[in-house]
Amino acid sequence: MNVQKFIFDKREVESIDGQTTWKSPSNIALVKYWGKIGEQIPANPSISFTLNNCHTLTTLKYKKAESLSFKVFVEGVREESFEPKIKKFLERIQKYCSFIEQYSFEIHTKNTFPHSSGIASSASGLSALALCITSIEKTLDNTMSDSFFKEKASFLARLGSGSACRSIYPELVVWGENQSFENSSDLVAIPFDGAHEVFKDFQDTILLVDKGQKVVSSTVGHNLMHNHPFSKQRFTQAHENLEQLKKALIEGDLKTFTAIVESEALTLHAMMMTSNPYFILMKPNTLNIIEEVWAYREKHNLNLTITLDAGANVHLLYPKSEEKQAMSLINNTLIEFCENKSYICDEVGSGSVEI
Ligand code: DP6
Fold first, then answer.
1. Which atom belonging to ligand 1 lies closest to the Cα atom of 40?
2. DSSP characters over 286-313
3. How far does the centroid of ligand 1 lie from the alpha carbon of residue 145, in Å?
4. What is the pTM assigned to this prediction?
């Protein structure tokens, strides 16, 4: 795939003012994106579940202007601390959407999950904004097809935050070239719709072990994969895991699903522990939760599966049919390991929507 097709170069836009609103979800990776090259090109392919309840709602108000300017409002209040990241994003996408140079924007955004929950909002936030900008492009180019709309939004979202490009699509989404996924690309995510029905309503309960800011930003974390002693093997392993996971997803093979997903989470943390400088992102309660989940799973012959992002919180994944047992484990045992006993119930979702 060539970046050329994503360049929309309209020098002079008609004087249209307006606004557009998108709701876009967060996602949880099963095979992790960790390491990138150049302009947001992933060092290995990844696959994620798009979530349902954790999402960002963004309204983009636009007015024709002499030059590009913008302001960010979070729940109605100006939030200047968000502006450097958005500025960088707008600068990056300028060559693909030159029309933004002729607008002044107001970005009004809010998350359904608390900013202080330790849950990354970059995937939902940047995908929602990318969708809003692609909506403006669609008003300027009425020949744009619905499928290209999503591709372009995914392309732009990636430039904001890598994992954001996966949030455009529902359910299971692949990003990064891999031989087993036809049309897979480093530039955009693609939906994977061949999975067994058990994965259609998978649950994700996010156990909030640490609600603080991330110890290491993902940008710093990705960079640690440059010159990492194990990076080459890790990138090869991600390809293999993705290929094996594809088979398990198609067959509904939950045991293999668990083995690959948990190994991916622990490998991500192992990469952080073995980089220079090194970091431990888990907390004692992360390990307490993992041990309790493994013991309970064994005892009751269940398929509860843990995964982690680059932080201490634990995502507990399980089929809908095991919800009762999972909730009983959470409310009787795991809740004690969560900060202020908090957790968020989420599940596989149907992707971004225009409001
Ligand atoms: C551990 O997408 O947040 O969640 O591209 O620098 O914005 P940037 O990184 P980001 O990295 C996410 C890393 C991860 C794994 C994943 O979601 O695949």
1. 5
2. HHHHHHHHHHHHHHHT---EEEE-SSS-
3. 29
4. 0.97
